[in-house]
Specification:
Blueprint: E1 3-7, H1 12-22, E2 27-29, H2 40-54, E3 59-62, H3 77-104, E4 109-116, H4 126-146, E5 151-158, H5 183-193, E6 205-208
Parallel strand pairs: 1-2, 1-3, 3-4, 4-5, 5-6
Helix pairs in contact: 1-5, 2-3, 3-4
Pfam families: adh_short_C2
Keywords: Cell wall, Secreted
InterPro entries: NAD(P)-bd_dom_sf, SDR, SDR_fam
Amino acid sequence: MTRVLITGADTKLGVAVNDYFTTRGAVTAAPPVGVDHTDRATVRDAVRQVAERMGGIDVLVTAHALPHVAAFTEQSMAEFWGHVDATLTGSFLYAQTTAEHMRDNRTGGRIVLTTSRWHIGGPGLAAVATAAGGIVALTKTLTRDFGVFGIGVNAVAIGGVDSEWSVCDPEVATPPLGRPGTVQQVANLIGLLSRPQLKAAVGQIVNVDGGLSRNRV
């Protein structure tokens, strides 16, 4: 039975991811309500509690962060770092602690980080792009750090999807498919990336944006 830790279970994406796994017989858990995703000691304790409750962790999915859109000259440093910390630092801490657990217990596992397709940058997206670009680099680095222990790390970059992240998409940005994607479609991809059978399919950032992106990362 697959054991899945999902951060951000109260977001649209988090709910869809939880539904995906539970309907397929997996056991899921989320960090305690109110946990500070940017505090190392708090995150480590939260992951420990979840691992003890489920008897281990096979998959980590991070979906806790929410976007911050603001004109570059109008946002404060507190707002900027608030988003970067919640998104990038939080993803780092959960990945670090969960990967240590998978390594030390010799179980291996899969980690899927979620981010925005706007790692390419966009108007009013200084904080979003900074955090997203960091997650791109983090995904590729963690693969090199933990791949030898059977831990596969990938990321999903979201855009053109009906979720909290829709505020990052310009009104004129209609996906080539002609309509926005859904969080259920994103959850399906996350479920695929969580399969241990994928083996060497690691270190990848997969865009889920209806074909809006034309970049390679």
